[in-house]
Amino acid sequence: MSHTAHIRSHRKPRRSASKIAMRAGVAGGVLSTLAVAGASGSASAAEPVTQTLELPTLTADLSAQVAESATATELAAANYQLEAERDAAAAQAAKEAKADLAEAKKKAEAKKKAAEAARRAAAERAERAARDAERPTLTASASADVSTSTSTATGSAAAVVAFVKAQVGKAYVSGATGPSAYDCSGLVQAAFKQVGISLPRVSQDQSTAGTQVSLSNLQPGDILYWGSAGSAYHVAVYVGDGMFVGAQNPSTGVAEKPLSYDPPTGAVRVL
User: What is the DSSP track for 82-124?
Assistant: First the structure.
């Protein structure tokens, strides 16, 4: 018996061919299963990749939409700004037009007043000229009928005389009632207002405001008128000594004149 007979061999026992084939088959099946699973897993894993590839397209669409929205917003803002500028310009134009219209109206009103004053002054001059042409020239005998009394005014008459004399030199302005300018009836009205007597505003009415008196019996403070009573075109105040004070016309203004300068038609007494 050999000295190595009881020592086990360190070599692995040989396997039979059938076992090897079975194990190879099993291994092949496992590998096939793993391969299928791997393929399935790979296929499953591929789906997210497909979705990931589509994301850039979605992102590009969204960017385009955002860009379009931004452009629309900018256009809307520009339109609003343009509209606001147009509204502001229209408001400014309307304001300027309103101011121009007001100024034009003011100028037109001033021109109208000036034209009316000129018309009234011209009418008074024309009426006076017509009356003077119709009235006979004052003769010496007629002059004798006009009083040249030297009696001194007293009381209210003195106050009226003093007032009209104080206005001598002031301007004649049609329609004016003082204190810096007068027309003929405005001066007479203002003079009698000083003594508490309210006279009508115009010459026609003032020529019938009191008692008719003869020109041969005049007293200081009497109202002289030119034209017919009730349709007189000029008035003045007799101040005594054959003199009268009246707002004559734009060239002479308020002046003191002798009766012979422009002989009156009649007179009324209210004091």
Answer: HHHHHHHHHHHHHHHHHHHHHHHHHHHHHHHHHHHHHHHHHHH
Separation of alpha carbons 226 and 265, rounded Å = 5
Distance CA 104, CA 13 (A): 132
The answer to whether 229 and 209 are in contact (CB under 8 A) is: no
In order of 91, 121, 166, the CA distances from 129 in angstroms are 56, 12, 28
C-beta separation of 224 from 235 below 8 A: yes
What digits encode the pLDDT tens for the residues 66-96? 777 888 888 888 888 888 888 888 888 888 8
pTM confidence score = 0.50
Residue boundaries of the structural domains of the chain = 62-134, 143-269
The top-level CATH class assigned to 143-269 is: alpha beta
Q: Could you tell me which residue, 226 or 38, shows the higher pLDDT?
A: 226
- Distance (Å, whole) CA 98 – CA 84: 21
pLDDT band of residue 13 (cuts 50, 70, 90) is: low
- Alpha-carbon distance of 271 to 269, in angstroms, equals 6
* Distance separating alpha carbons of residues 202 and 175, to the nearest angstrom: 9
Count of Cβ atoms closer than 10 Å to residue 253 Cβ: 17
For the residues 199-222, what does the mean pLDDT come to? Answer: 97
Residue 30 has pLDDT above 50, yes or no: no
Query: Which tokens go with 263?
Result: 């002989």
